[in-house]
Amino acid sequence: MYKRIIKTGLFVWLLLPSLVLSQEVMSLQECLRTGLENNYGLQITRNEARIANNNVTPGNAGFLPEVSLNAGYNLRSSNSDQFPAENGETVQTRNAATGTTDAGVNLNWTLFEGFRVQTNYKRLQELQTAGELNIRMAVENFIADLTAEYYNYVQQQLRLGNLKYAVALSRERLRIVEARYQVGSLSRLDLQQARVYFNADSSLLIQQYETLHRSRILLNEMMGGDVNRFFTASDTTIRFNPSLSKEQLIDATLRHNTGLLLTEMNKRLSELELKSLQSRNYPYLRLNGGYGFTHYNYNRGTLERQRNWGPTVGMTLGFTLFDGFNRKREQKNARLSIQNSGLRVEQHKLALQSDFAGMWIAYQNNIELTSLELESLINAELNYEIAIERYKIGDLSGLELREAQNSLLEAEQRLLTAQYNTKLFEISLLQISGNVISYLENDISNR
């Protein structure tokens, strides 16, 4: 049974690397460019921004008149009795039909309404800007998320390599134990123990392949492509920039953070809402005009048909004298909304400063932790080399060798975790400061 398990583990371990080697290689920039083009969420956000862009027109704001064309036909049947004032014969009319055909062009144009039209146009322009900022935020979030998952994929590839190395060490130990068992220098218990360790490491390797593929599938989903597409990351290590400038980043955060810019834009929209309400404090002036044609057909009376045509023009000047104090109430509420918008801006700034401070501390701590874990890995490698040499000459027990092997694997994993966490905080710092797009141009860790 043990031999069958070992053969199965070896088969999987030998087969899966051949699948990986047959995959294409993609860099972070290639993944980002593919995702920015194909990601469905980004396409939806871009279309929503196009809607806001299409709405910025003079007609939508109310600058232009409304012109309508109408035509119709009406048929009227009536009965009438006419009684003269003096003594005379009563005139009776029954089933008198009148057909009316009319057509006309009408124009309605608000010439002045307290600057409401101008305010509406500015509001549409602000909404257009909001659409652009929403695209920018969606792109920044996407770049940050995909970059984080890309380096998680790199991390899982490196973990896979570490586990392959662990399996190779266990296989070498199993070879040594089998050779000694054949000559009688080790017991069957030692052989069984070596096989258990080899199978345990092979099992972890198989599980790591599953973890690696889950990360790859998620990356494919984010890129908007075939989730079964096979590829490997071109990066062979997790690099990060240890020399980011705190002063530059915090300054960029308070000036370029997309969320803060959207909050400030909402304040401007509140101010425009107040101006729109204040337009009701002014009179309004409307122009209306048209040109009409009307044709009548009669089947009774002195006239057989009649036609009227010609232009009409008029102007309306009005002012709302009293509306139940609603105008005053709405404007008062609008001023309170402006005050709240200003408070939200300050609240957002404070939250950004708080988030930045936490990210910066974590970023610095993980840089130090990475250096410490790198030193630990060097010591663990040296410790294992000494342990395997002592084991080969019979000066070290199998349990002590296994402990040295586990210490080496744990040191490798801790270093990867520290490097990945540092990269995540680097991504967060660049995202909050509006600089995360630099990953699309070039990996900032290469600068």
Overall residue-averaged pLDDT value: 88
Give helix % range: 55-70%
The CATH H-level homologous superfamily? Outer membrane efflux proteins (OEP)
Instruction: Tell me the series of helices and strands, N- to C-terminal.
Output: HEHHHEEHHEHHEEHHH
Q: Enter the CATH topology name.
A: Outer membrane efflux proteins (OEP)
N-to-C span: 55 Å
Question: What is the structural class?
Answer: alpha+beta
Radius of gyration: 40 Å
How many runs of DSSP E, i.e. beta strands?
Answer: 6
Q: What is the approximate shape?
A: elongated
Unreliable residue stretches: 1-21
- In spatial order, strands of the major sheet run 2-3-5-6
**Can you tell me the CATH architecture?**
Up-down Bundle
Number of domains: 1
Largest sheet: 4 strands, antiparallel
- Please report the first level of CATH classification, the CATH class: Mainly Alpha
List the helices and strands and how they pair.
Layout: H1 2-21, E1 24-26, H2 28-38, H3 40-54, H4 58-61, E2 66-82, E3 91-112, H5 116-183, H6 188-222, E4 231-233, H7 246-256, H8 258-278, E5 284-298, E6 305-318, H9 326-392, H10 398-432, H11 438-441
Parallel strand pairs: 1-4
Antiparallel strand pairs: 2-3, 3-5, 5-6
